[in-house]
Write a structure and sequence with these properties.
- The radius of gyration is 21 Å and the shape is globular.
- The protein has helices spanning 3-10, 17-27, 31-34, 39-46, 50-59, 65-74, 95-116, 119-131, 142-156, 167-176, 193-204, 236-239, 242-262, 264-278, and strands at residues 135-138, 161-164, 182-186, 208-213, 226-229.
- It has two domains: 3-74, Winged helix-like DNA-binding domain superfamily/Winged helix DNA-binding domain (Arc Repressor Mutant, subunit A), CATH 1.10.10.10; 119-281, 3-Layer(aba) Sandwich (Rossmann fold), CATH 3.40.50.
- Strand 3 (182-186), helix 11 and strand 4 (208-213) form a beta-alpha-beta unit.
- Helix 2 (17-27) crosses helix 5 and helix 8 (119-131) crosses helix 13.
- It contains 14 helices and five strands.
- Strands 2-1-3-4-5 form a five-stranded parallel sheet, with helices on both faces.
- By secondary structure, it is an alpha/beta fold.
């Protein structure tokens, strides 16, 4: 999937009905043809107002209509529009079919996230992690599992962190954070009330806040100093959130790699010491 398509699809839920008409037009027409249109012509083709096109452009993550067209021109992956392969698992699939569709789904999700990742925001998050006195991670459901992985990775790199999944303990933790501390909220939807409320409380008490989500216009982003966006393109109801977990772990691995690179000596030292601490746990 091209970068433009991934961006539009990742924000589709936040578009109004008329804005979705613009989104559908962009997704279903060749980019080199759209770049020749004025905002008036695009609006006419979509049967919407120029103001609707302008709002769509802003929600899609671009500064202006001209910025949008420039990115369209640079995003030349889809001169021929291709449909994604069907990866929906059916009751008639063989075990081998399920393996192939699972693999394709994972690969598509990784490519979707790769297309929209903002490296500057990940670097900003890395700097916040490096300077934090205390790191608390909030997530419930499947996001709590990713929180545990983030805790493990950060601790092994020499940045002690604590993942909290109980909503009451999240709130208590957030209330005790302050200046110099870091709260990290994980929510695929960005609308999980407990996680949003905990991040908001941490921010209110002066902590730096980061969120990891698939929806950049969701409630949790209002309380995050840095928004780390991923995009799986999955329907969690149908697929049990497997691909959304995958791209969240991809983000964790990217953060870990950046930390390892910027704090190499610290990471090596912590890696040796933590490995030594558990060596006697093996047969």
């Amino acid at each position: 999937m091209s970068k433009i398509n991934a961006l539009i699809n990742s924000r589709m839920y936040s578009f109004t009905k008329s804005e979705k008409q613009v989104a559908d037009y962009v997704l279903n027409n060749k980019k080199n043809e759209i770049t020749r249109l004025t905002i008036t012509e695009l609006a006419s083709n979509c049967n919407v107002s120029e103001a609707t096109v302008a709002r769509f452009v802003k929600k899609a993550g671009f500064e202006s209509f001209q910025d949008f067209k420039l990115n369209l021109a640079l995003d030349n992956d889809d001169e021929i529009i291709e449909e994604e392969k069907d990866i929906t698992i059916s009751k008639d699939d063989s075990p081998q079919d399920i393996l192939i569709k699972t693999k394709l789904g994972f690969l598509q999700s990784i490519e979707n996230t790769d297309a929209i990742i903002d490296m500057n925001k990940f670097l900003q998050a890395v700097n916040f992690i490096r300077s934090a006195k205390k790191i608390e991670i909030y997530g419930v459901g499947s996001s709590s599992a990713v929180g545990k992985i983030l805790q493990y990775k950060l601790t092994r790199l020499g940045f002690p962190a604590y993942s909290i999944e109980d909503p009451h303990m999240q709130a208590i933790s957030a209330a005790t954070l302050g200046l110099g501390d870091l709260a990290f909220g994980i929510s695929q939807s960005g609308s999980t009330k407990d996680t949003v409320d905990s991040l908001a409380l941490a921010k209110k008490h002066g902590a730096t806040t980061i969120c990891l989500t698939e929806h950049v216009n969701s409630p949790i982003t209002k309380y995050a100093d840095v928004v780390l966006e991923v995009y799986s393109g999955e329907n969690p109801v149908k697929t049990s959130a497997g691909r959304s977990i995958l791209v969240q772990v991809l983000a964790v691995e990217l953060l870990s790699g950046l930390l390892y690179s910027t704090e190499h000596e610290k990471a090596i030292k912590a890696g040796k010491e933590t490995a030594s601490a558990v060596v006697n746990k093996l047969y």
